[in-house]
């Protein structure tokens, strides 16, 4: 079997040609080439060769994070019996729930963790964490500008129509605008906290915004600044798209809670659903009570065996999969910037999440790009993505266009000779 992987694309390649052997008397000679001599278009091949040192640094990061994951699996004594899952109320530890929580918490440097298929998305997990912290009369402060789109109705920035936003429950909201350079405004943050500020929300990734994502060290600096002003203020980090992009995680620098989705980085492209909350044990239990009910907390929740196995497998592979995504983001930035497009982060800038933004300049070009991604995909390459409304988003996005986040990182890794017009 011949596999083309971004993990080795930075290193010298050799032409591959397979010939089907035939008897001398045969009149038929079959050569199988399939364009393997030139798997990349020229501009991509040039970019791959130029990114050797960046790709090597990613390999080292993957090795460090994989070692941490392996040690956590060993310490949790993960065994094959944990892959069986459980049914009903989910009280049986043999189903692997406690072992998964233990391994996850150690990997992320947290006291405790709750990893569940019942979390619909990262937004759902973040919501449970926010409701664990906040009560009527409290204030939520967004530290890095406006939060992710899907949190707007959760907070009450957009009308939730009485369905139970934080605003509906009497929680106030403020945000610290971004600095002119698109980063965190440190001067504004120094005086931003008030006595009633109960929770500071830090979004690690840029998400859909055109801004710089935060490093874990920057998050740690912000946490110290917040705690100096108000020691009772709790810090919640939206960790989506940031897991395993560095060799440390927010709980290691003082975050009280982090939350995210298994559909993204920590699911290793294998977990089919789910999310997590991790951090200080008291607040993890409070978030779990929001997911389930007070009195049930972390000790309930069934997960079928096929899902539980995928959770363990995806978590173990996630450092490698995140490494592939980082390499893809370097490559996309390098090629698209060379063609004159604005990109964020800039080429060869150290990554702090798996998001690579490209300004295409028009709706038509965006749709064309998404269509090219779909055509180059191994599944549903024959379909055409169509923009439309998606629950939680005010802007026109569409289910297929959200796939762009992950698929665009592999856009130039296929044989794209037919897409050169882009």
From TrEMBL:
Recorded superkingdom: Eukaryota
Organism per entry: Escallonia rubra
Protein name: Aluminum resistance protein
